Amino acid sequence: LPAIQPLVAGNWKMNGTKAALAEVIAISDWIDSAGNTLKADTMICPPATLTMVMAELCSNGKVLIGGQDCHPLASGAHTGDISAEMLADAGASAVILGHSERRSDHAETDNGVRAKVEAAHRAGLTAIVCVGETAGQRGAGLTLPVVARQLEGSIPDAVTAENTIVAYEPVWAIGTGLTPTADDVAEVHAMIREALQKRFDVAGIRMRILYGGSVKGSNAAELMSVANVNGALVGGASLKAADLIQILETY
Ligand code: PEP
C-alpha cells in the first residue's frame, strides 16, 4: 500500500471576515514557494460566509477548502442551515462534522453526525469526522470506549479512504494549550486504526486519522510523528498564516 498523504486542516470556527483572506493568500504563496518539497495536503475550513470567495482565491487547488458543518438534507425549510450540496457548489471539497463544539453547542448526537456524513458523501465531499473524550471521561478511564462508541455511531457503513477522515480531538485539549502525551495519542490512534481496519478493511488501513487539540508550531513535530497520526486539525494556530506555516514546515 502507498504511504498515507498527511493533511493539515485549519478550522477557523466563527472567526474571519474578508480581511482574513490575506492569510489564506499567504499560505497559498508559501506552498507555491515550497514547491513539491511539502509532503502534506493543506486545507482551510473558513466560516460559511467566506467559503465561495476563498475557494475562488484558491482555485489552483494548493489550499483545499472545507465547511465546518452541513445539514443532512440537500435543501428545504431549514432556516440558517447549509447543505453539503451548497458547500460543494461554493467550492468546498470537504466538511468537518461532529466537532465537539457542534456536539455541545447544538446537542449533536452520533446518529445525527452519521446522517451528515452520508449527506457529505452524497454531495461528493470528504467528511472529517471528529471524535474525542471530555476531561471527565478521561479522568474516569473511559477514553477508549467513548471514542470507540463515537466512531461506531458517527461513521456510516459504506465509506472509502478518500471520502472519510477521522479527527481525534480530546475535548479538554481544544483551545486550552493542553495536549495529551505522545504515548496517549499513540494509544488512541492505534485503537482507532484497529477499529477502522476491522470495520472497513483496506479502506480502514488507508484512511487518514488526524490529531486535533492545541497543535502549534512548537509541538507539531512531536505530535505528527506519532504512529497512526496522519496530520492535524488545527484551530487557533490556523488563523494566522505564519502560525499554520510553522506546522506545515514539519512536513
Ligand atoms: C479544533 O477546534 O478543531 C482545534 C483543534 O482547536 P485548537 O487547535 O485551537 O485547540
From TrEMBL:
Keyword flag RNA-binding = no
Q: Which UniProt keywords apply?
A: Cytoplasm, Gluconeogenesis, Glycolysis, Isomerase
Name the record gives this protein: Triosephosphate isomerase
* SUPFAM superfamilies linked: Triosephosphate isomerase (TIM) (SSF51351)
InterPro entries named in the record:
Aldolase_TIM, TIM_sf, TrioseP_Isoase_bac/euk, Triosephosphate_isomerase, Triosephosphate_isomerase_AS
Parts forming coiled coils: none
| Quaternary structure and interacting proteins, as annotated | Homodimer.
The listed locations are:
Cytoplasm
Active site residues per record: H99, E169
What HAMAP family does the record point to? TIM_B (MF_00147_B)
TM region positions: none
Write down the chemical reaction(s) this protein catalyses: L-erythrulose 1-phosphate = D-erythrulose 4-phosphate; D-glyceraldehyde 3-phosphate = dihydroxyacetone phosphate
Q: In which pathway does it act?
A: Carbohydrate metabolism; erythritol degradation; Carbohydrate degradation; glycolysis; D-glyceraldehyde 3-phosphate from glycerone phosphate: step 1/1; Carbohydrate biosynthesis; gluconeogenesis
Top EC class per UniProt? Answer: isomerase
**What GO molecular function annotations does the UniProt record carry, in alphabetical order?**
isomerase activity
Native organism: Filomicrobium insigne
Reported EC number(s) for this entry are 5.3.1.1
Looking at the keywords, is Ion transport present?
A: no
A Pfam short name: TIM
Role according to the record: Involved in the gluconeogenesis. Catalyzes stereospecifically the conversion of dihydroxyacetone phosphate (DHAP) to D-glyceraldehyde-3-phosphate (G3P).
* Annotated binding of substrate, by residue: N11, W12, K13, G175, S214, G235, G236
Family stated for the protein in its record: Belongs to the triosephosphate isomerase family.
Q: Which domain of life is it from?
A: Bacteria
